[in-house]
Write a structure and sequence with these properties.
Elements (H helix, E strand, L loop, with lengths): L1 E4 H11 L4 E4 L6 H8 L6 E4 L3 H15 L3 E5 L3 H4 L2 H9 L4 E7 L18 H8 L2 E5 L5 H13 L6 E6 H4 L2 E4 L24 H13 L17
Parallel strand pairs: 2-3, 2-4, 4-5, 5-7, 6-7
Antiparallel strand pairs: 1-8
Helix pairs in contact: 1-2, 1-7, 3-5
Length: 230
């Protein structure tokens, strides 16, 4: 256990889960996050865009080109709303994108008093555009929520997820326990309740059967089903 800010815990978990590039547009609501990121730029490369939409679309492109989870960080309210076209596209094309957004002061969320970048029910909007979304309320829960975000990214049908964190929560310090292992997707059960095959076993059996059928005098059409096409 060590004493960390929420931002330091989140950056550590991003690194643990394989994020090596972060597409971002800094703003006052995320200052503490970028302070923490500065200390880890040897492991996570920030790419600074001129508009939030570019951040999200670069994260989308990175995820689609690499097949790996990607992430972007923007300010709340209009900053987050500027990313929603790319976030919706990530949802449609099964891209594993993590949206990280700031928030107004934690005690003021939901009070609708007109603070800078305040957005009514930002978390609800995010949940409507992603597979899963949540709010980080304390430093101690940050590691678990980030790992849960990646577990959701890697489980079942790949789609974007989101996390938000208030401006005053990013810099709050507390004792934090950091996991030593990245998030893992649980094995998906079969309809009959049996265990899934070992990696590669199904393809190996298919290849053997295909080889035995190549000698047939009639042509063979082979169709391969992929969960990514669901």
């Amino acid at each position: 256990m060590q004493t960390l800010t929420t931002a330091q815990a989140v950056v550590s978990m991003l690194e643990l889960n394989g994020i090596d590039t972060l597409f971002c547009l800094p703003g006052v609501q995320n200052d503490s996050f970028f302070d923490a990121l500065y200390d880890r730029t040897n492991a996570i490369r920030p790419i600074h865009a001129r508009h939030e939409q570019a951040c999200a679309y670069m994260a989308l492109g990175y995820a689609m080109a690499s097949g790996k989870p990607s992430a972007y960080v923007v300010v709340p309210g209009p900053g987050f709303l500027n990313t929603t076209a790319a976030l919706s596209t990530a949802y449609a094309v099964n891209a594993p994108v993590l949206a990280l957004t700031g928030q107004i002061q934690q005690s003021m969320i939901g009070r609708n008093v007109g603070l800078l970048h305040e957005l009514p029910d930002q978390l609800g909007i995010m949940r409507g555009l992603t597979k899963w979304a949540d709010r980080i309320n304390t430093p101690s829960e940050a590691p678990g929520l980030v790992n849960e975000a990646f577990r959701r990214l890697l489980s079942g049908r790949r789609r974007p997820v989101g996390l938000e964190c208030a401006i005053d929560t990013w810099g709050r310090k507390a004792p934090v326990v950091l996991p030593t292992a990245p998030a893992q997707a649980p094995p998906e059960p079969r309809a009959d309740g049996s265990s899934p095959p070992l990696p590669g076993r199904g393809l190996g059996q298919m290849s053997a059967r295909l080889d035995s059928r190549l000698a047939w005098p009639r042509p063979l059409v082979c169709s391969i089903y992929s969960k990514e096409s669901q």
